[in-house]
Each structure stands twice: as C-alpha cells, then as structure tokens.
Amino acid sequence: MVKIYLFSRTSSTYPGGVADFSAHESVGDGHVESLRAPSGGKWGGANVDGGFVALLEMLFGTDELKGFIYGYTSEWLRFLRKYEATLQMSQANAGICLDIPLRLIDLSREAGKSMVQSQTIGGHFSLDGSRLTIDEQITESLYQYTMNSLCNEIDRLANIGVVADETITHVVVTGGMAASRIVKDRLQEQLKRYTLLFPNSGSSFALKGAVLLGYNKSLINSRIMPLTYALHNAVQFDETRHKDGATKDINGKKICTENVHPLIKIGTKVKPGTELSEIDMPLRATDKEHYVHVVSCGMVAELPSLVTHCCIHRETTFTIPLPFGCQVKDKIFDRVTVVGETELSFKFKFKKGDDETYIRYLEYK
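Above: the chain sequence. Below: its structure as tokens.
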C-alpha cells in the first residue's frame, strides 16, 4: 500500500506545494511494516497555483497583477480562496469560470492589456464583464506536471528495491488537494492497476494517523532508513581508501582525519529501538573529551571513504567527556547507535567506571 499526502497550498502551518509518499505492508492487527523509505517532491497544490498566477500575468499583465496583489492584498486573498474552491469542485474535461476582481480589470485596462480590450484571446479564454472563462484544455494543463510526477513516483516505488508490482495493491490519497475532482479522475485514469482510496476528510487523515501512532508507536513494526548515517572520524591511514585524504601524525602513526565510518545504510529495514553497538576510543591518552561528528549520505553506489566527497552532508557535532586515565585503554567505550521512531540517539558506556552518556541528536523523516 502506498499513501500519498497532497498539500493543497503553502501556508505558515504546513509545507504546502509538496507530495509525501510512504509505502507500507499490512501485517495484520492494524500493524504495518515499511516497504520503502519516505519520499516525495514539490508536486502539490502550489504548482497548480503557480500556473494559475502565470495565466493571470499573461492575461492582465505582470506589473498590474503585482500591483493588485500588493496594493489590495485582502481582496487578492479572497479571490484566491474562491479560485481554489472553484478549481476543487471542477469536473474533469470541463473548464472553470471565475469572477475577476474589478480593481485588477481596471488596472489592466488602464495599461491597455489585450485581454480586457478584446473579449477572447487564443480561443482558450473569454472575459464577459468581470466573468473569466477558462476552457478545459488550459484547466487540465494546470495539473499536468503534478499528475505526471505523482504517477511516476508510484511507478518508481512499485519497481525499485524490496517493493514489487504484486506487492502494491492499494494507493491511499489524502490531503487538501486530494479533494479535487480533476486529481481523482486523472489518478484513477492513469493508475488503473491499483485500487485507489480517497478517504473522507482527507485533509485531517494524516493527523488522525499521527494521533493513533502517538498512542501506540508499535503500530509500525519496522522502518526503512531514508539515508546512510555515518561518523566522520580519524583512523590509521589506508592507502586504498584514504589516498587524497588529510593526514596527521599521532603517536608515531599516520592518521587520516577525514575518514567516513558507516553506522547504518540507506534502505536498511530496522525495528524502532534497534541498538547497534561498537567499541570506540580516543586517539590520545591526554584527550579529555571526544568529538562525535555525524554525517549522512543519500543514494550512491558505494559510500565514499572521505568526508570531502560531495555526497557527504554534515548533520551535527557533539562532544562527550572522557574518564580520567593515563592510557588510551582507560578511555575505551561502547558507542551504541539507537534507531528510534523518527530519530537517532547515542549511548556511550565507558569500560572504566559506571559513567554513561545519552544523547538524542537527530530527528529524521
């Protein structure tokens, strides 16, 4: 099952203009397991809104529209709400009719723009007084990029990695934009091999799921890591891996200071709470604290061995205090990486003494 959340527009509360994808397999009793790492793109309602604004600029003038937006902002926002309601209720293979604000028409007429001088332009638009009619071809084109992107991403999920065609049987489409009749009709037309579900109150569907998960986090039995997470550390120089890396002489040994040490790889299926333990130690007995540099890497054929590679991204750095000791072996510790629900955490258990340090450092999606 693939779930798509379509944000209808950009706001201060939601990151509008995006489509979020998640793929899960039902394992009974209301529990699911992840099939793919969460994905998505800028394929939400902001694309449709952007195309509509571009049409208004073409019809009434860029400067005139900008002057109306900034000069009469409240009127512009009321017009946008009416436009979105009209577009959401519009049928496939049908155009839309909108009442254009008279102030915008006046600004455009004063500038001598062609749309307000002649009632039609290009055969796709007509203006009768303040009533603008946009034909079905242009209306459908507003959604074309979004529809193609959504369908391509579903096909990608169905054919890459652990997901196979026969695995995905249902696609659940939620969010504000999912209420659009054009979106529903086009998705049903292009995704006939799947059973498409459009829940009522789709805009609150994801919120309800989040509340249920908050009460019972075990509903998701496993997750797929969205990135490779690693440490930037210093290790003994290896000619085959560190040829171009920076080096330093420490205790008579040639040390590469730009090494990438993998913790957990992209695409790995893990249960929340999984702990990955490794033995670690500082390079010098005189060190009083240990620096932990966390990095990440996306989808690459092979994890780079040096942090200077363009695919390596720095996530965070934190320090942990080291116990007193005259030798490096006095400061050996277990470094435990804990994979949480939506975060990575670290526990450090020192071999000498009873000290333990716990750090929650990274929220991931």
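Confidence is low (pLDDT under 50) at residues 9-15, 161-165.
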